[in-house]
Amino acid sequence: MDKSAFEDRKAIIAGPMHGSLRHDSAHKHVTGTADYIDDIPEPAGLLHGALGLSDRAHAEILSIDLSAVAAYPGVVWVFTGKDVPGVNDVSSNGSHDEPLLVETLVQFHGQPIFAVIAETRDAARRAALLAKIDYRDLPHWSDIDGALANGSPLVITPMTLRRGEPDTEMSNAAIRLKGQMRIGGQEHFYLEGHIAVAIPGEDDEVTVWSSTQHPSEIQHIVGHVLDIPSNAVTVNVRRMGGGFGGKETQGNQFAALAAIAAKKLARAIKFRPDRDEDMSATGKRHDFLVDYELGFDAEGRIHAVDATYAARCGFSSDLSGPVTDRALFHADSSYFYPHVHLTSKPLKTHTVSNTAFRGFGGPQGMLGAERFIEEIAYAVGKDPLDVRKVNFYGQPGSERTLTPYHQEVEDNIIARIVEELEETADYRARRNAIIAFNRDSRYIRKGIALTPVKFGISFTMTAFNQAGALVHIYQDGSIHLNHGGTEMGQGLYTKVAQVLADSFQVDIDRVKITATTTAKVPNTSATAASSGSDLNGMAAYDAARQIKERLVAFAAEKWDVGPADVVFLPNRVRVGEIEIPFPDFIKQAYFARVQLSAAGFYKTPKIHWDRKAGRGTPFYYFAYGASCTEVSIDTLTGEYLIDRTDILHDVGRSLNPAIDMGQVEGAFVQGLGWLTTEELWWDDKGRLRTHAPSTYKIPLASDRPKIFNVRLAEWSENTEASIGRSKAVGEPPLMLAISVLEALSMAVASVANYKACPRLDAPATPERVLMAVERMKRV
């Protein structure tokens, strides 16, 4: 094989689909030229909106006087729920429990009651503070304990997972223990807050630019509140400055308000809340209270698990059903439970309705499982890693492959991942050295932990596992790509463009990535559940397949060769013995009247789920990973440092290793924030007090591990027919940060010579670490 033929073959095998190409907007992010919605030139006559928020947690509205608001200079219109043309509801699941503007009953502090439209944003915000509202206060509770104490209703029917005989087999276990774990919530803290611009059109038409992960839902909600069909609403999204789940449903209210005002006033409207308002009026990660009973033997092998997962859901259901479901789906982490009973308890509280956040309940379920392992390890006097290993799921064919929801784990590589990381991180020697250090150190104590990740990939709502893509090839050979996924910095656009460039064997710069819009690809799912690349990449691949089949048929007929003799090579097409540059080939196909456009479609195979029965195959496959973290704590103050973290993560055959590495690193640091520094706090009046950067502490660059070693498992390849045999990377690596909490726990346990489980709750702020140290001193 000559050199040119070898290079051609190499390009076909590797192609741009598995290359470390830069993010398509990276240079724009760095130079500040990436356009976000607030950067779009303002239309003539643009007006600005602001929210009028409640200052009660739970109260009946007796009267509203908005005269001073309306009289403020620059105010054009003030409207309430009574002015909504259609249905005054923005609930994402059809439950009709989330009013756009509350009319009679306030259910959380900061709930929108009215909206102000003015000539300037400043005027709208100042006017919104002038409302006079009389309330009759009602009893309120803002946390899980208050909800339980007051017999709070559930926001949605809970789910139960059961397998085996947990009731009787718990009694047969050699050792039993009970415990409780509190797991904190988390604010999304995207760099770009919520924003929407609505531009009125002819008749009932309206165009909305929204910072949303779910354009089709915005389309549906806007049609809902305006009482117009979806075909009159166009929603556009070029990019978001971060989403993390917070823009899956929470953008509904801002888009709906902007659209109502735009149609009423026949002028463009922009809503961009202040950071304080954004944090007060939009949902967060659910915090959990996990009550558990464990049965196990002297080797630490789990026999039975019985656990209840209570969650602070807020005033409405939002996505709390699927979030608490996914917590149960991941309550096994990487471990086989022979007998198990798991129940969710989605509690109503008088707080903003909690919503999707990276991991979508999975991190809370998985963190609970790692507490189970920790409890068992201290009870039997073993290294937690050894207890983890003895409880791992087995290989296909063994009896240890069935999850609590009765799905077989068919692609299990967790043992290999953990063993490889254990060796490369030198875990055993470092743990022994840490134990020796703690024995001699008076004030500084160290800890180390190696924890696994097994995360299910797919929407648990089966219908959401579908995607569409629209691909055009123009006469000059340039390619236009549009699909239903949204770009929030995670590199989805780049990856899907790589798929398309690989399919046609052209340079990536020949593919134009265009803004997501409901006018091109309809009925899209949210870009969530880590499935953006899986779904949209396959949809784009399907569109390319259709066009290529037409091109191959055209070439075979024109040049009188067999279809197998038509081969796409880098930037050219070989037809029999001749080679034609790709643009020339496309030009000839156009003149032969070959259709050069296709709508691709993909739906995930194999999956099905029966929530009522608690049985099915909700996940197409699992993504795996492991992390090893070493920490140092000051036992006098509770302050700590993260000395080193080693990560080995499974992304299958990576579509773009550079982007995937960035996702793993970023997810770990975001998970680190959730488990250490980020604490949500409501006061006794139901007011969120951690509502700004001054009071809510996300991790900084200086908080990252001092030594940070991250590797992808290059030997891994998805056993399912995913795009390029890759695996999802968005959510799974967030749970790698659990090793940080476990390492902190070991450092605390050293104060009592490792005699008891510290039961360190999350977030493990310095205050909580110090309190845990003081508890250990009394053991």
From TrEMBL:
Its cofactor is Mo-molybdopterin cytosine dinucleotide; [2Fe-2S] cluster; Mo-molybdopterin; FAD. Keywords: 2Fe-2S, Iron, Iron-sulfur, Metal-binding, Molybdenum, Oxidoreductase. Its EC number is 1.17.1.4. It comes from the Bacteria. GO terms for molecular function: 2 iron, 2 sulfur cluster binding; iron ion binding; molybdenum ion binding; xanthine dehydrogenase activity. Residues 31-139 form the Aldehyde oxidase/xanthine dehydrogenase a/b hammerhead domain. The keyword Nucleotide-binding does not apply. It holds the Pfam family MoCoBD_1. InterPro entries: Ald_Oxase/Xan_DH_a/b, Ald_Oxase/Xan_DH_a/b_sf, Ald_Oxase/xanthine_DH-like, AldOxase/xan_DH_MoCoBD1, AldOxase/xan_DH_MoCoBD2, AldOxase/xan_DH_Mopterin-bd_sf, Xanthine_DH_Mopterin-bd_su. Coiled coil: none annotated. The keyword Transmembrane does not apply. Belongs to the xanthine dehydrogenase family. This is Xanthine dehydrogenase large subunit. It comes from Rhizobium esperanzae.
